[in-house]
Known about the structure:
Order of helices and strands: EHHEEEHEHEEHHEEEHHEE
Distance between the termini: 41 Å
Radius of gyration: 21 Å
Number of helices: 8
Strand content: 25-35%
Helix content: 25-40%
Number of strands: 12
Shape: globular
Largest sheet: 7 strands, mixed
Amino acid sequence: MKLVKQKxxxxxxxxxxxxxxxTPWLVEHIDELGDTIGLELEVIGREVSVGPYSADILAKDxxxxxxxxxxxxxxxxxxxxxxxxxxxxxxxxxxxxxxxxTDFTEEHKKAFDWLNDNxxxxxAFWAIxxxxxxxxxxTASMRFNIVCRPNSDIKTIKTKSNVESExxxxxxxxxxxxxxxxxxxxxxxxxxxxxxxxxxxxxxxxSGIFLSCTCNAQKSIVGVRLYIRSSVVETYLPAFEARKxxxxxxxxxxxxxxxxxxxxxxTISMNPL
Length: 273
C-alpha cells in the first residue's frame, strides 16, 4: 500500500456543466450520495418541471416513500439556489432537500441549520460540499462532505412530544438507543431519525435492499429481516438462495426464507431474537 499526495482541484475540470455533465453523473451514482446521508435513494426524474423552472433531480427515499429534491451548484452557494430548492420541495411535496455545492457561505449554513431546528420532524435539510482531489495525472477522487444535517436530537424530541401511546414511547426510546449503538460500530451509516414505529431500516449501500429491524413492544420481541424490494427481487433473492446453506451456517440458525411468498417484496427474517 502506497501513500500518495493529492491536490484539490475544481470539480468543473471533470464536470464543466452542472446540467449536462454533473447532474447526469450523479443520477448514475445516486447510491454514493445515498450512502453519505444514510438514505436509499431512487431517482424519479432529472430536470423535473416546476412552473418555468426545473429541479435538478427528484428522487424518492425508498424507506419512507417520500420525495427528495436534489439541487446542484458547482460553485459557491447563492440565494437563487436556496430559494429554488425550497420552491421545488414545496411544489413537488418533497420531505428532504439536498443542496450540493463546492462551497457554502456562513449565511446559507445558518439558513439550513435554522430550517432543521425549526421545522417538523418530517422535513430534512442537507448541505453537502463536493470536493474533487487529483491523485495523479488521469485519476481523481470525489468526496461528499456533510456541512449541515437534520438535528436528530431536536427532531426526536419533537417526535416524542407527538407520541401519545405508551407503546409509541417505548418504540421511540428503543430506536433512539438502537441508533446510538449502531453508529458506534462505525460499520454502517444511518442518519434516520428514530420514530415511534415498529421498524427501523438500515441501508446496505445497494438500491432496493436493506435490513429492516423490528420491535414488537407489546410482546417484547425484536427481530431483523433482509428486505428485498420487487424491483431487484429477481437479482438478489436467487443469489441468496443459492448460498442458503452457507448463510444458515454463518448465522448459526435457519431464518425464515421468504415467509410471505405471495408478496411482491421479499424478506428473509430472523424473528424473534
